[in-house]
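User: Show me a protein chain along with its predicted structure.
Assistant: Here is one chain, sequence first, then structure tokens.
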Amino acid sequence: MALSHLNLLRPVLCRFVPSVVRTPLVTCSRVPFLPRPVVLPNYARHYATKKSKAKAKGQTAKVNIKAALVDDIISLEEVNEDMAAVLTTLKEDFSRSLSIRTSPGALDHIIVTTKDGKFPLNQLGQISMKSPQLLVVNMTGFPEATAAVTRALQESSMGLNPDVEGTIIRVPVPKVTREHRENLVKLAKQFSNKAKDLLRRVRSNTISQLKKSKEGVSDDTIHLIEKQVQQMADSYVADIDKQLATKTKELLG
């Protein structure tokens, strides 16, 4: 009877009786204590690669000065207009002088050297188109420049072979060959390089003007304006390169 009561009390005894006094009759199982794993933070040191360093080194901070704030020093709007005019002239040259189709304007870009100086051909002679294969230059206005015009036509990169009769110069237009297309591309590059030279001149003149007005202006302000002008020039140079790439693709087909 006593033993049966003891069996009934076994679950209760397992809770309260210390393990050191447990008897074989009163046993209970214990879940062993396992330490909780400690998760350490993952510290990763990031090293800059050579490529990222070079990229960061090549990048310069953009400058954006409001033109109204420096009007008393220099007119950035006028500088931008001068640079825009260079790009406009380039586009006109491309359209007028670099076409696969024959037009009187195809000879306008040719510079004629005379004893009085250098002049565009269209200022010395009247150019007309008699047929798609023939251009005529009338030198009645400046007959003394006929020989110089003929020489300039021969020395141009267009592969021309003019025929002179008095003050009339007949210019047969060569067939559109691969060589002719490549010559037009060379001419396009010449126009582009000339435009870049003009941009550099605008920039140089602007910097010179800026340095003349340096008195009373902080060096930091002068430096920022110079940087702004350089950014403007770089932007137009990029536009010139785009125009050249487009025209080259058009000429080469």
